[in-house]
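Note to self: the last two entries modelled the partners one at a time, which told us nothing about the interface. This time every component goes in together.
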Amino acid sequence: METLPDKTVERLSQYRRSLNNQLAKGKEHIFSHEIANLLHITSVQVRRDIMLIGYSGTLRKGYDIKELVHLIGVILDTDDGQKIAVIGMGNIGKGFIHYLYEKRSKLKIVAAFDINPEKIDKTYADVYCYHLDKLEEIIKKENIKIGIITTPPQVAPEIADKLANAGIKGILNYTPKPLSVPEDVYLEEYDMITSLEKVAYFVKEE
Amino acid sequence: METLPDKTVERLSQYRRSLNNQLAKGKEHIFSHEIANLLHITSVQVRRDIMLIGYSGTLRKGYDIKELVHLIGVILDTDDGQKIAVIGMGNIGKGFIHYLYEKRSKLKIVAAFDINPEKIDKTYADVYCYHLDKLEEIIKKENIKIGIITTPPQVAPEIADKLANAGIKGILNYTPKPLSVPEDVYLEEYDMITSLEKVAYFVKEE
DNA sequence: TTCCCATTGTTAAAATAATAACAATAATTT
DNA sequence: AAATTATTGTTATTATTTTAACAATGGGAA
Ligand SMILES: NC(=O)c1ccc[n+]([C@@H]2O[C@H](COP(=O)([O-])OP(=O)(O)OC[C@H]3O[C@@H](n4cnc5c(N)ncnc54)[C@H](O)[C@@H]3O)[C@@H](O)[C@H]2O)c1
Ligand SMILES: NC(=O)c1ccc[n+]([C@@H]2O[C@H](COP(=O)([O-])OP(=O)(O)OC[C@H]3O[C@@H](n4cnc5c(N)ncnc54)[C@H](O)[C@@H]3O)[C@@H](O)[C@H]2O)c1
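The predicted structure of the combined assembly is written out below.
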């Protein structure tokens, strides 16, 4: 399949979560406008996204939730599940690990790294925390493909370099420091302060 | 000023942070392409954003950093600084408070709320944590206008209702539960798993 | 049966955002 | 002093994303 629009990919992830909730409640079919209500978007957008991934519902009955969840899985997940490392076991890093723990996601955090002796050689929700020096070794051995950076911002560029060298193919950067990565590494950055200042701006404009 | 594009607002916040870094390094003027490099975007975009906020640099000398930072402040900040409350003092809530602590931002977290007795009636980086029951009272008394929700997802809708009732005008929702709010409340939602699945998708597509 | 109507799937249009193009101009070089 | 260069500011173009429009269809009602 040719690559899907950025925003559609984001929504698919959200559809899946909501759909799984509905499945858990015993619902088997769902209409586009129902999905739309759950996510507070429009039903047109839902239908369009579903069209783009090549699924068809049945008229008057809507979409088969199980089938749709499965298809989203085919699109978003890899066959073997992608392995993830977290670098920086502070508030955010730990939060992430605990959050993913017990989620039945195909995405698995398999290693954590830090430099603080109090944090390393311990296990957090089944994830072992290594010293940063072991980064390359473990990433290669485990064939980890994605890294989440939750260190202090100053060291983020250095961590990004190390990750790229070790063969990581995707980085999620939670520090407010913008990073440069080689062309073949996909980079997603998120800055909480930006979100907050955005809210503040639009509140002010009312 | 007519409202700026969404994305421009996000970038202004980022410009300001980078510009302050440069100021701290003793730099007084900066070119559009320098700002662009810091943020890994194009210089055209920088110039366009700066045009939109009505600032002019001087040819060959670039932008006066201090002036630009000041103007971004005029746009993003309110006169008195906006007050913020955090609901849910877990990993993310605490992280946020510590992060904003000692930042010289006009945005001030002035109260936290939780229901866990171990968390309440304590102070975290100068922010006092109240029992959730006090929410409406404190928000009204302190004239808090923005709420950050970092509770478990199940209770998020209930918290959002309480916030809206108490007169909050902007909500930043970090739980994966989509919320509904009254028309006059600005809502920004962010879901870490969505970011992660997005990275995973684009890594897979390579 | 025949007609309505809810709902999908798809194409078309509009809105938003990013990029390119380029004119203007002030500093620097020749 | 003329030409060159670096840089801004702005308009035009292109790309992406969202929204609207509507034809198709099959279930249920009359
Ligand atoms: N931490 C992450 O990396 C991560 C990732 C994805 C999503 N999330 C989401 O972010 C949210 C917060 O995550 P976290 O790791 O900080 O969770 P956490 O469990 O550490 O913290 C939640 C806090 O909310 C409090 N709380 C519970 N019910 C409450 C109520 N009714 N009113 C007020 N406070 C209440 C709890 O006492 C606790 O202090 C969760 O919704 C989680 O799903 C977190
Ligand atoms: N927590 C928030 O709400 C929030 C908000 C905005 C931005 N941020 C950013 O997110 C990032 C993480 O925030 P946090 O609150 O989890 O920070 P934190 O200070 O709690 O955790 C940082 C962790 O990184 C480790 N570390 C330091 N240097 C390291 C290195 N070279 N290699 C590996 N690990 C190293 C530290 O030992 C610590 O465990 C920071 O960049 C922060 O600026 C956080």
